[in-house]
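Customer escalation, tier 2.

The customer says the design service returned an amino acid string that "doesn't look like it belongs to this structure." They asked us to rerun it and document both sides in this ticket. The original structure tokens are below, unchanged.
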């Protein structure tokens, strides 16, 4: 497999072997920075940042300049034709004819995938709403690898706004794929979204253990944990223990990495709960790190920080966040060079250890069920003109769809068949998705509705299987 001409929209666009190869190239490049100045000579990177950014944009641009390439940029949506109502697809087609590679940050979830679908050149997702931020995850993994040589078996805690933090979503997938044990300290109201957790157990075949209510023996600001995720190779040691013993065991063994993020306020609805979230937000400071489970912990943060990470920790040798940011340049240099084909790494399928990507069937129809995430690119007026909401069918029983853009999951209630028996109108029926029809309708004929109204608007009538006794 080669990386040339591919895009990096989610962290799962890169296999484990490709990530390892990219890290070796980043090592080489940072050891010989001055020798890289002709690697991407004559190439242009379009840097499109439609949300605030310091590190990601500047490290991408610095990376391209260090490779000898040039940068064109747009950093304000209001200064582009998107503000006039242009679609992302049209913008992508046009920029694709000006540049050789695009880096995009956009507030809508799934926007980077649309750009990748239409640009005709490699596209890197620099953050799409609350969905993913794969290159931040690469910098994070690279930092942990540098400090600890391996990811496998490390106990890594993710602390803070796991709901809207796109960087922790990409990082979670990568950690799971490299065999880390992921710990979830309590974050009431800001827990990791179900669709992220569901991917851990379906795609990566690991085990998520939700832990029981607080227990006196392990009380603290960080313990007791809400849940832990274990990869198949690690699960046997801890999974056998009762909840309380898991907590004590983990506290005793210590935490390898504490990864903190800020409250992603810009993605929250302004409510009273929001004010409480701010008030109760975790703080990592000298006092917390005095606990013995943090004796050897790497303290990480993608930055920017607000109040969740005390400045008094900056000189502490456990603090990694400025190193993490500095690694952004060589890691992004390696990625740009690989996608542009200026450097090549070949990884044979056999030596690659990525858990095989599951090939779920795609559900695509011009009508019927829609993604329920209002921030999904497929739900925006400018994009609806050309875009159809498409889904991966993750399971039939229960019926579970995953939006191909934002990856939110939904469980639609109603189904019908496009093959309605010689086209007789009286046979045009819809059924409950929980009835036996879910197995009977051929996949190519399956129609899925989010509501009865939707079904009736298309001329379908309720069958006697529209409600199912449980
Ligand atoms: C992160 C982001 O933009 O998602 N920042 C970054 O890229 N370094 C995290 C954040 O903004 O909190």
């Amino acid at each position: 497999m080669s990386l040339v001409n591919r895009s990096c929209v989610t962290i799962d666009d890169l296999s484990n072997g490709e990530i390892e190869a990219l890290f070796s190239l980043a090592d080489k490049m940072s050891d010989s920075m001055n020798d890289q100045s002709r690697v991407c000579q004559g190439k242009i990177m379009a840097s499109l940042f439609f949300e605030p950014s310091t590190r990601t944009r500047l490290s991408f641009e610095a990376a391209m300049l260090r490779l000898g390439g040039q940068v064109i940029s747009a950093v304000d949506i209001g200064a582009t034709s998107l503000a006039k109502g242009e679609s992302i697809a049209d913008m992508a087609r046009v920029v694709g004819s000006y540049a050789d590679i695009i880096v995009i940050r956009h507030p809508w979830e799934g926007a980077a995938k649309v750009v990748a679908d239409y640009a005709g050149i490699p596209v890197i997702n620099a953050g799409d709403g609350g969905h993913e931020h794969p290159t931040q995850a690469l910098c994070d993994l690279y930092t942990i690898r540098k400090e600890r040589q391996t990811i496998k078996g490390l106990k890594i805690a993710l602390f803070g706004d796991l709901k809207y933090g796109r960087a922790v979503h990409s990082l979670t997938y990568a950690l799971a794929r490299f065999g880390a044990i992921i710990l979830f300290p309590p974050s009431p109201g800001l827990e990791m979204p179900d669709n992220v957790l569901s991917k851990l157990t379906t795609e990566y075949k690991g085990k998520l253990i939700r832990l029981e209510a607080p227990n006196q023996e392990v009380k603290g600001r960080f313990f007791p944990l809400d849940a832990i995720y274990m990869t198949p190779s690690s699960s046997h040691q801890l999974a056998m223990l009762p909840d309380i013993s898991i907590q004590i065991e983990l506290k005793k063994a210590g935490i390898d990495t504490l990864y903190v993020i800020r409250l992603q306020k810009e993605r929250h609805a302004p409510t009273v709960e929001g004010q409480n979230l701010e008030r109760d937000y975790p703080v990592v400071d000298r006092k917390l790190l005095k606990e013995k489970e943090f004796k050897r912990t790497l303290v990480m943060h993608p930055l920017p920080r607000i109040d969740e990470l005390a400045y008094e920790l900056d000189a502490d040798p456990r603090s990694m966040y400025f190193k993490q940011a500095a690694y952004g340049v060589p890691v992004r240099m390696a990625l740009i060079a690989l996608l542009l084909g200026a450097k090549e790494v070949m990884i044979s399928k056999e030596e690659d250890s990525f858990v095989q990507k599951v090939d779920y069937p795609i559900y695509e129809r011009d009508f019927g069920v829609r993604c329920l995430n209002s921030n999904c690119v497929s739900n925006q007026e400018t994009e609806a003109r050309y875009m159809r909401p498409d889904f991966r069918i993750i399971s039939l029983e229960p019926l579970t769809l995953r939006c191909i853009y934002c990856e939110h999951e939904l469980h639609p209630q109603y189904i019908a068949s496009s093959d309605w028996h010689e086209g007789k109108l009286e046979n045009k029926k819809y059924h409950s998705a929980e009835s036996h029809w879910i197995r009977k309708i051929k996949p190519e004929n399956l129609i899925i509705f989010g509501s009865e109204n939707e079904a009736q608007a298309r001329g379908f009538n309720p069958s006697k299987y529209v409600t199912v006794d449980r």
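Tier 2 assessment: The sequence is consistent with the input. The CA atoms of residues 76 and 248 lie 49 Å apart. Residues 55-56, 127, 133, 136, 166-167, 261-262, 302-304 surround N-carbamoyl-L-aspartate (CB under 6 Å). Sent an explanation to the customer and offered a walkthrough call.
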